[in-house]
Amino acid sequence: MSALINIFIVLFAIISMECLSWFIHKYLFHGPLWFMHKSHHQKTKSFFEWNDLFAALFAAVSLFLMYADRDNLSYRFRDYFIWPDLFCGTRLVCAPEI
Ligand SMILES: [Zn+2]
Predict the structure, then answer these.
(1) Distance (Å) from CA 40 to ligand 1 centroid
(2) Which of 6, 72, 81, 92 has the largest CB neighbor count within 10 A?
(3) What pLDDT band is residue 63 in, cutting at 50, 70 and 90?
C-alpha cells in the first residue's frame, strides 16, 4: 500500500509541476516577463540569452529553500542526492580511472 501512495505522490508531483510550468510560461513569461523571455524565441549568436536568468533565479530560490529547511533535511535526501551530486556528479571524487 505504501508503494502505491508513493507512486501516486510522484505522479501527482509530476503532473502538478507540468501544469504549473505551462501556466507560468503562458501567463508570466509571455506576459509581464516577456522582456526577458523573448530572447528564448529569437535567433541569436550569443551563447547566453536573457531567458537564462530564469534558470539562475529558480535555482537560487530552490537552494535558499533547501538551506532554510536544512535542519529538517532527511539524511536519506542528503546522502543520496546532495553528496553524490556534489562529488560524483561533478566527477571530482568518484571519477573512474580510465
Ligand atoms: Zn515562450
Answers:
(1) 7
(2) 81
(3) confident
pLDDT of 19 above 90: yes
- For residue 44, the SS3 value is coil
How many residues does this entry show for the chain?
98
User: Grid coordinates standing for 13?
Assistant: 508531483
Query: How far does the centroid of ligand 1 lie from the alpha carbon of residue 45, in Å?
Result: 18
Query: Given the C-alpha cell 546522502, which residue does it identify?
Result: 79
The structure's pTM equals 0.59
Distances from the Cα of 22 to the Cαs of 14, 16, 27, 50, 93, in angstroms? Answer: 12, 10, 8, 20, 38
Amino acid (one-letter) located at 34: W
Please tell me the distance between residue 27's alpha carbon and the centre of ligand 1 in angstroms: 10
